TrEMBL record:
Name of the protein described by the UniProt record: Uncharacterized protein
Organism expressing this protein natively: Lotharella globosa
Pfam families: TPR_12, TPR_8
Keywords linked to the UniProt accession: Repeat, TPR repeat
Residue windows of the TPR repeats: 239-272
Length: 523
């Protein structure tokens, strides 16, 4: 920026305690204009950190305070124009409760309580994540929080409440968008501090929970379960922790333990609500968990009853706007109808889920990709092949960008796309549009195998073979040659399964591909 925007300003922050004047305090600091003009919440957080060290018996909470000038005018927290206090160096910090009382007493519509732009809270259960009602705004929140975290880390170090709060806000946002690599990076940076004796009491349980959620979304369910067990030792049992453990047991195929967890959680949640009416109830996730367990045990119709309860609970408890949890419930109901071969009902719920995911999470979210893939498979069963191609190709283009690639899902969808082109000969299929995604997937597989996110085995070979087949129908024969060679490498490394037939098929296809390349056909 210009020298003017870089110029520091001496700001005096003042707080007056109405209950006891001995708790009055002020803080004089030099602040670069870029912070007080664009990110004024830093002023409150810096003051609160200073104040709470000075008066540990009378702590303030940043979220409960607002910035105001000496005339009592409240500054908006999500962006202060420079004119607001370019000529005012003294700023008051006013408790929001006082503003609310003043508004009530005056009944004046001109008095506005500032709507603070909060970073999302930590998801307490695997099915109570932050809902991204506006993906673009969520991206802005991520950029802002990333900037805050880096600034606090540089100015205060990692051993700071401000830095840790920013770190967890950033991870909340990233994990909701399945940006798991970034979550892993931040976890690695703050692990030692969260486990430090001076910080462990307030931060270690939060650290374990975030790490468990990250591992769960990376499909590392055994590691996630170990972390949830550690969390139980740290904070004790709760309905939300039981729900998380139930979903994890379910993913591991231990259905009896999963059902026990969900039933115990349903009993406990009523007790918790009775003891604390303000407790955030989460019966929707528990009904969903029970329904999924019953479905996977073969009791699909019985499970569908619980899944419908989950859907109705989420519809009733998430407000009038679209919500990703409602979409998740629609998907669970849709999959149950899919198991019952009631294709129309399955497609209906999946279409509603896709629409909600696109509105709340965006086109690039794994939730959107998973829903599109499921809808594409159902559309094949219904004979709606053009619709199937549209959904499956969109799903494939989405899935290749994930931080944690799902090899089997990618193989299944690429195989179905190949079948739609070659066997079914569906209208509207254009394999050339998949080529950029094939190249993206190829670039991502190597690093993810190296990082241990993708297991290096014959399954990767099968995926490369299916990628080669799509490249061939797109007439990109040099790409197909590359993918077939990689497939042969992975098939050769597989020791637990005889890949002889697959190796022979790859070699036969390679012969044809080499011939086409020599003739100068295609790309």
């Amino acid at each position: 920026g210009s020298p003017v925007t870089r110029m520091p300003l001496r700001v005096v922050l003042a707080y007056k305690c109405k209950e006891d004047s001995k708790y009055d305090s002020s803080l004089s600091i030099k602040v670069p204009k870029k912070y007080w003009a664009k990110e004024p919440e830093h002023l409150i957080e810096w003051f609160v950190e200073f104040y709470n060290k000075k008066f540990p018996e009378h702590k303030l909470v940043p979220e409960d305070l607002a910035l105001a000038d000496r005339d009592g005018k409240v500054f908006p927290k999500d962006g202060v124009m420079e004119e607001c206090f370019s000529h005012k160096q003294e700023i008051d910090l006013i408790p929001l409760k006082e503003l609310e009382k003043e508004a009530d007493s005056k009944d004046d519509s001109s008095i506005s309580i500032p709507a603070f732009q909060q970073a999302p809270r930590s998801a307490m259960t695997l099915h109570s994540e932050v809902d991204m009602e506006n993906p673009k705004e969520f991206e802005k929140a991520e950029d802002l929080t990333e900037s805050q975290y880096k600034t606090f880390k540089a100015n205060h170090g990692l051993k700071s409440e401000l830095t840790l709060k920013a770190a967890f806000r950033l991870m909340d946002i990233c994990i909701a968008q399945y940006k798991l690599d970034r979550v892993d990076q931040v976890l690695g940076e703050i692990e030692a501090v969260c486990g430090d004796k001076d910080f462990r009491k307030d931060w270690w349980a939060k650290f374990i929970q975030m790490k468990a959620f990250c591992r769960w979304k990376q499909s590392k369910f055994k590691e996630a379960l170990t972390l949830f067990e550690e969390m139980k030792e740290e904070v004790g049992l709760s309905s939300k922790l039981l729900e998380n453990m139930g979903h994890t047991h379910n993913s591991l195929g231990d259905y009896k333990k999963a059902q026990d967890c969900f039933q115990q959680a349903l009993s406990l949640v009523d007790v918790e609500t009775e003891l604390n009416p303000k407790t955030d109830s989460h019966k929707g996730g528990l009904y969903m968990g029970l329904g999924l367990v019953k479905k996977r045990q073969g009791n699909v119709k019985e499970g569908l009853v619980d899944l419908k309860k989950s859907l109705e609970w989420y519809k009733s408890n998430t407000g009038p706007r679209p919500h990703s949890l409602v979409a998740k419930a629609h998907m669970s109901v849709g999959h149950a109808y899919e198991d019952l071969k009631q294709w129309n009902d399955a497609a209906l719920h999946m279409e509603m889920a896709v629409d909600i995911f696109q509105k709340t999470c965006g086109d690039d979210s794994p939730l959107t990709g998973n829903a599109l893939g499921a809808l594409g498979k159902v559309a094949i069963e219904m004979g709606k092949y053009e619709k199937s191609w549209e959904a499956l190709s969109a799903a494939f283009m989405n899935e290749v960008k994930h931080d944690s690639l799902k090899v089997f899902t990618l193989f299944e969808h690429s195989s179905l796309l190949y079948r739609l082109i070659t066997s079914i000969k569906a209208k509207g299929c254009d394999a050339k549009k998949l080529v950029p995604s094939l190249m993206t997937l190829d670039r991502a597989l190597g690093p993810q195998m190296k990082a241990g996110l993708v297991k290096r085995d014959g399954n990767v070979g099968a995926l490369y073979k299916s990628m080669a087949e799509l490249a061939i129908v797109a007439q990109h024969y040099k790409l197909a040659n590359t993918y077939l060679c990689k497939a042969l490498t992975h098939f050769g490394e597989e020791k637990s399964f005889d890949c002889g037939k697959l190796i022979e098929e790859c070699r036969n296809i390679l012969t044809l591909v080499h011939d086409l390349i020599r003739k100068g056909i295609g790309h």
